[in-house]
Each structure stands twice: as C-alpha cells, then as structure tokens.
Design brief:
Length: 455
C-alpha cells in the first residue's frame, strides 16, 4: 500500500494548527502503525499523523429506472468513447383547462406559439443552435409505470422543428411560432368545434399526446419542465374582440403536470461499457469508471482498503477524513458532471441497502450522528452527506470524519458506496444525460488522526 505520512508534534493549539498547514508531506512505504515520534512519557498525545489510502472505483448497472412523472422532459443525444451513443426521447400527455372558455365557432386565429420551459441544455458547445422536434403520439400514455426502456408509437414526421441559440443562457423560456402550421391550425379548428374537448378521455382519444426529440448529429441533450409553460398557446379573437385572448393546450395546468415519461436508448458498441451485460454485477472496466444519468449505470466505490488500515490502529482519534475522486475527464461549462453525489451503502448484492423501516442507508454529514439511537442502524436524515464537485479542481470531495470514527468505534459496519446524483434533495439522476468519467484508481481517502498513549 502506498502511504503518505506527515507527523506533527503536540504543541500549543495555534502553533500546531500552523504546522498542520505548512509541514511538508513526505512519501513513505513504512507501516503506518510504526510512523511517528513519541513525546515525553508524561504526555498522553503522541501527535497527529496523515495517511492516504487509495481506493478503487467500479461500475455497476442497476435495475431499470422508473422515469414516470419525474417533472423533467429529457430528450436529445450524447456520444462519447466510454458510454457510446445515448439518445433520450420524452413522451407527454397534453391537458386543457376547462375553466377557460373555448374560442367561439367564428373565432379568428391570430397566432400560435409552442413554448418550451427549458431547465438546462447539455452540450460540449453551445455556439450553434440546438434543434427541438415535437411529434404526435399515436397511442395513449396509460396510468402505469413507464421505465427508461419504455416507448410508444408516434408519427415519424414531426409536427414542427425549431432551433434555438442557448449560448447566452440555458435556463430560459423559448418558443416556436406556428401560425401557418397545418397541425396547429387543425387543432384550433377542433378547439372551436369542442367535440374533442368534452372531457379528458375524449380529448386523449383525439390527441394522445406529444413526443420531444433532439437532432442526433448535434450531440446535445435538453431538459424541459412540463407544465403551463411547455405547450401550445392559441391567440385568437372572438367576434367583437379588440384584443387577443389566449387558450393553452399544454403539458400541465397550474401546478399539475400531465403524465409523462422518458425513454433512454444507449448503444455502447466499441466502448468499455459494452462489457456490462448483467444488472447488479460489479464490472472492472480497467483504468476508467463512470456514471451516466438515466441509463442505470453507476459507480461503486470499494472502501475495503480502509479495513486493513483500521486494523493497524489502537487508541486513535480521527481529526479529519476527506474522500476525493478525480480529476474527471470532462469539465466543460456547458456540459458539467452531476453537481452532488449521495453515498448509498451497498454490499455484495450491489443494491442500495435499506433499514428495517425501508429507508435508505447512506453516509451522514460530518459532525452529525451516524447511528440511530433507537434501532442501532445507520441513521436516516433528509440531508445526507454529498460528494460535491469542485469545478476548479474538477474533483468530487467530502469530509467523512464522523463516518470513519463511527466505523472505528464499531458503531456502524464499513460498507462500500454506490454514488448516486442528488441535488437539493431531488433525484438528479433522472433529470438529464449528464455523466462523469474518471481514473478508476483515483479515489483516495486523506486521513489525519491522533494517537493517544495507553497506560
């Protein structure tokens, strides 16, 4: 094992802190239990030690993801030499508001827009416009769970195609003008007639929904939020009106989104991930490992080297433990990796471990309890510890001091981690096609610990 050590004498607090910052880091292959200088026999502290423990990252594929009603319409494509070609297609019902009066039979159509409430656009470059395609669904979205492999039949020719420039801003509202679009004009005529709008079931028979796609050759993926601001808006005038009225047929009404799901098609041919053929199996893909959103592919972090180190220690306290991964292979401003990764516990099953009450087991923040005082299990909180992406260094990093102290004291079992994208308490993994790839041997634990003399 490669060991990097630093030793700091037990001195007054301010001086010791200063030495911790400026003391040079030395490389050594000596047994960590033999490193350090003892002080006066009457002093209970031997000193502060530093050690690096190399870890390994592997790749697993979880079971198929449910992508129903994620509040994100993900579409477009991406391509790389690790995950291969990936395409996302979004499917959604449309809703109309029965509380808004429909156009009268003699109403005149002034204009039609289709709005897109864009959350973000991921691409290596945003200088060129990105293409949005909207297609008509040929079959209804049912009240069942849809997965990332699910699909429905839709018209291959799009209702319309529009391109937008996102070089200045990606989280924005854009729209396509459809004044002369035959589908839009026919939909307005049906709206005036009203037969297809008598109830939601009749409307779904008339128009099952729409499909969102990107242009395959652009290697850009989009995330659009369903709701009032994504869908058709008809501007019209009834007889006698001097200003236009508006009638929306959109992917949501008020705070209610229409039923939707995302399909993800991944072709890993010719890439390292082509070797992944089974679910819940650990794959060593050589010098690289990585995770790609919405595909089920995740990173498993082998924490077992920590066991060998802890076995060498007696009477120690961990002052600071830092987990770092990276640097990552890609860190482009317009195509960032997931911002945060939750560290779920796992074992030989490669599944996320659950408590007796069905809640997930995960690393908790430093300075917070790691053990449930009632059950003795790893504690569950709504604010777990997260590996955070440092954009300048292009690494993931987090403190695990309390976690390692709990393992050392025998309060919790040492377990491997499944790294899962999470942001602001929401499931980031199902929100995009973001990814990260890193050197599979780059993860490292940086440990500062103190020894105490046993009498």
């Amino acid at each position: 094992m490669k060991v990097t050590t630093t030793y700091i004498l037990t001195l007054p607090a301010k001086l010791a802190f200063g030495l911790l910052i400026i003391f040079p880091i030395l490389s050594s292959c000596e047994d960590p239990s033999n490193i350090g200088l003892e002080l006066d026999p009457n002093n209970n502290q031997i000193g502060v030690f530093y050690q690096e423990i190399p870890l390994s990252a592997f790749v697993i594929k979880q079971d198929s993801l449910i992508t129903t009603n994620t509040e994100n319409l993900v579409f477009g494509s991406d391509e790389g030499d690790f995950f291969g070609k990936t395409e996302a297609i979004a499917y959604s019902r449309l809703l109309f508001n029965r509380d808004i009066a429909r156009p009268q039979p003699n109403a005149v159509l002034d204009s039609v827009r289709f709005n897109f409430n864009v959350r973000f656009v991921n691409a290596d470059e945003l200088n060129s416009p990105k293409t949005f395609q909207v297609h008509r669904l040929n079959e209804q979205i049912r009240d069942i769970s849809y997965y990332n492999f699910s699909s429905l039949d839709y018209e291959q020719d799009p209702i319309f195609t529009a391109s937008f420039n996102f070089s200045a801003r990606q989280d924005t509202l854009v729209f396509a003008t459809l004044n002369e679009n035959p589908f839009a004009r026919d939909l307005f005529e049906a709206l005036k007639d009203g037969t297809a709008f008598s109830d939601v079931f009749t409307f779904r028979e008339f128009l099952p929904g729409i499909v969102f796609k990107g242009a395959e050759n652009e290697k850009a993926s989009m995330t659009v939020r369903p709701g009032n601001n994504t869908g058709f808006v008809f501007f019209y005038r009834n007889e006698g009106d001097t200003v236009s009225r508006a009638y929306p047929i959109a992917t949501g009404i008020n705070s209610n989104s229409a039923r939707h799901f995302n399909q993800v098609i991944n072709d890993p041919t010719g890439t390292p991930t082509e070797a992944i053929t089974e679910k819940f199996v650990t794959y060593d893909l050589g010098p690289r490992a990585g995770s790609k959103n919405n595909t089920g592919i995740l990173v498993r972090l082998d924490m077992s080297p920590l066991d060998a180190f802890l076995d060498t220690l007696r009477n120690v306290t961990f002052n600071q433990v830092i987990l770092e991964l990276g640097p990552l292979e890609r860190n482009i401003a317009s195509n960032r990796p997931p911002q945060f990764l939750q560290m779920f516990f796992t074992n030989e099953t490669n599944r996320v471990l659950l408590r007796e009450d069905g809640r997930v087991m995960a690393v908790q923040p430093d300075g917070r309890p790691q053990v449930d005082p009632t059950t003795g299990e790893p504690i569950f909180t709504d604010a777990p510890a997260l590996l955070a992406h440092d954009r300048e260094k292009n690494i993931y990093r987090q403190f695990l001091t309390s976690h390692v102290n709990a393992i050392y004291r025998g309060s919790i079992e040492r377990r491997d981690f499944i790294l899962y994208p999470l942001v602001s308490g929401s499931d980031e993994y199902r929100q995009s096609l973001r990814e990260f790839v890193l050197d599979s041997r780059s993860p490292i634990l940086k440990i500062y610990y103190s020894k105490t003399r046993a009498f």
